[in-house]
Known about the structure:
The complex is a heterodimer of chains A (315) and B (126).
Chain A: E1 10-11, H1 13-22, E2 27-31, E3 35-40, E4 43-48, H2 55-61, H3 67-75, H4 81-87, H5 93-111, E5 117-123, H6 137-154, H7 159-162, E6 165-167, H8 180-188, H9 195-202, H10 206-218, E7 222-224, H11 238-241, H12 296-314
Antiparallel strand pairs in A: 1-5, 2-3, 2-5, 3-4, 6-7
Helix pairs in contact in A: 3-4, 6-10, 9-10
Chain B: H1 4-11, E1 17-24, E2 29-35, H2 42-59, E3 73-77, E4 81-88, E5 96-103, H3 109-124
Antiparallel strand pairs in B: 1-2, 1-5, 3-4, 4-5
Amino acid sequence: MVRSTRIARTGSPRRALTQLAGSHATGALHIGTGDRLYLVSGEVVFAESPAAPGVGDLLVASGRLASQTWEAAMATADVRPGAWLVEQGHLTQGELELCVLGAIYDAAYFALGSATATLRFAEGESHGLGGVTAVDAAVLAKECARRRKLLDEIHPDAALDAAPVVPLRRAPVPRVVLSDLQWEIVAQADGRLSATGLARQLGRAGYAVLTEVRRLAAAGLVAPAAPGAADGAPATVGRAAMSTPRPPDGAPPIRAAVPAPAPRGALPALPRRAPGERLPELAASPAAAPAPTAPPVPADEALLKRIRTALKALR
Amino acid sequence: MSGIDDCLRQAMTIPGAIGASVVDYTTGHALAWAGNAPTGDPDASAAGSSDVIQAATHRAPFASTRPGDLVEDVVITTHGGYHLLRMIRTDFDSRLLLYVWLDRHEGNLAVAQRRIRILADELVAA
């Protein structure tokens, strides 16, 4: 059999995977800075991504395994730590397979996500866990594409996948029902962690957290944090500062009576009133609201001057 | 030692079993399957069974009547068959269900429900 495992140095990760699967390659496909897909005879047997919790993260974070047990398994002289965990009675074969399968789909979603990335194929390289399960490369690529489409069907704002998020200070409706995972996200979102950072912190699957963040954003309950909150700025301002979602084009946050442009399909965020400001027309919808002819702050000053003049006239 | 394939093989030995699959209901994707799927479309049955479970667990208050209550399974009865959806509860984070399709005349719902509960539990418990 002719085996060609030479791939382009830069290109589509999905195309590289298809090519390697076609040539029944065995080794590790390195994508970008930290994503890896491990293949055996063209099938994907493992995947890792810095954006997704790994098998060990999932098992330890949930309390299923003590971290010492996981470390002991990975340090064992046995070449198949996964099998060792099952033989020693720490996990059932079913748990191991399901956990590894979940981690493969989760990491592959991020690994295959970019249109183009730096690529390298290390022939013969294998991951540390030993053979557990295998996924057809075409099935995996198709499911990852489908997952991307499902996210956009929930709420078409891809910026939410990477941006730090915060819960909005006020819910847009009087009663809110959250799922368990949504509750964890709202409780942990501090304006510094992105959806993938939250997933790692919570020990939850990365894609599941992306899904729930988009659902929460669609319901007007979380929004991207104010710029600057991500790069180590104190989080003390995080929640309080988030009165309006940041406009998608990166423009400075709009103050005052003009409701922030609502993402399509989302409930409009509640406008906040600055001191001394006039209430917006109640009937005005965000789309119908007239663009302000002057910035809100000078308008306030003008109003104050008029009041002062009127009071003087009363003297 | 019983893994996913073994679990599905045993599910197919339940009287009346036509098809069985393990489905990730985050997105409605079949991770593994055996036998046949309704209308010959495993993707559609995985997506459909996921929608049903999502509706029962997240969008309806069935499991809120008592604190600590949880949805265990959902049974869809049609003129010709039973569709059993059983939650697989892992300690680590996952959203998985075991879906078994049975012929209504050859299958026995009570027997199948019991066998499927044991299979789903044994898959993830020592």
